[in-house]
Amino acid sequence: MTSAAASNAAAQQVRLLGLDFGSTTSSIMLVEARLGGHSVSGRMGFAEPRVIYRSEPVFTPFDGDGLDETRLTELLDSWLHACDLDKQAPFAGAALVTGLAARQANVAALTRLISQRIGDSLIATADDPGLESWLAFMGNCGLLSRAHPGQPILNLDIGGGTTNPAIGLDGNVLACGCHFIGARHWRFVPGSYQLLGCSEYGQALLTHLGITCRAGASLTNDEVQRLVAWQVSALEALVSADNGFFSSAIGRLHEQLPLHLPALATPPAITFSGGVGELIYRHLEDASWPPTTAYGDLGIDLARAILASALLAGGPRLLPETRGRATVHGLTLHSCEVSGTSLYLPEPERLPLRDVPIVARLPLDADYPSLLRALTLARYRPQGACLQLLGANAQLATLRNLAQRLREALLHSELPSSQPLVLLLEANVGKTLGQYVSDWGRMAQCLLVIDEIAPRPAQFIHIGRAHQQMVPVSFFGLE
What we know:
By secondary structure, the chain is α/β, with parallel strands linked by helices. It is built from 15 helices and 23 strands.
């Protein structure tokens, strides 16, 4: 790539989109950012983001049978028109359906509606708890974490159906979790505790606490406090690494993805995001609370109880710039990486590739048996498969040896030549490795080598269309 071409690529402005559908609310965010290389590392990425459009959160449309597809269609179309996306697709982005919305029987209809409107530029995924936790951390306190080196931060993303904790240090997420702790497991007539309905988790907790209440009846103040107290105790167990709390039957029911806190030299500061996090920071700034069940759930009660907990609110207080509106920020700005410009892409028309599983993570000096095992797994993935090759520094001799072993493994793996094989690299050597592995194009295998992609503990990737010798790579199914 010439210096002039590199300069043009660095000056390119692109648009990034985030769509967040949760248990209680949904929102959209569109950002314009500069696509170019980092001034120090040279790695391609997004810089100088500018928000073009950000909707106010709206209640996620439900009907008696699940998600309301008619109202969702109207909502999506109105958002896309407001963003001018009915005329021009974004460079990249993500849509995430989480919490109780992701557990509806017709959730596939929502992801289909999104894909029909945005197409191959966007990845739409439902019920991806690790990804939601990671994105909430990056969106709420990624910058805050980098600004306080050495200070661990535990972010609690508390919404209507789930709490997604993630702990990070120096801007890097170390561990994620997901628990069915949230404000909308019970729905009320706003302004009262008259019960309209509850989720399976809400009903299970009512039964566990010996509370008998049917739809149409009202909970007493004492019963509300008992429900909220149990949820606060669960949050305190997360913060204190009390895994025993979730070993009981009711605890196991509420745990989807356990949080394994690493050993740290410094106790973590706690930040909040999600709908309950927004309520907490809003109260800290203006000291007023909305009226009782103003949003038809226990979000206000839960936020107040969290602030009354010495364990949850008594430590060092760091204030996130987003004030809790995290997931849509994380989706928009952190849902994808940008490849380097030296990728090996002999058949760009094969892109985009969706739902490509990462079948193995191997070092650059991986031996022949390891490579053959990975390719054996890959042959059962007709949509394509990915090998993630780890190591930021690659010597020429290392690449040649790897290519020779990989070429030999390909000859013995029975991987169909038409099936895409993606090699994902940290190092800036994509074109070189691709030429070596393919024997300078003489091997018939459909091979794509994408470089300068930092590794993430994900299960799948989505590769968008090529754009000025670069491609966007989105990760999902975070472990």
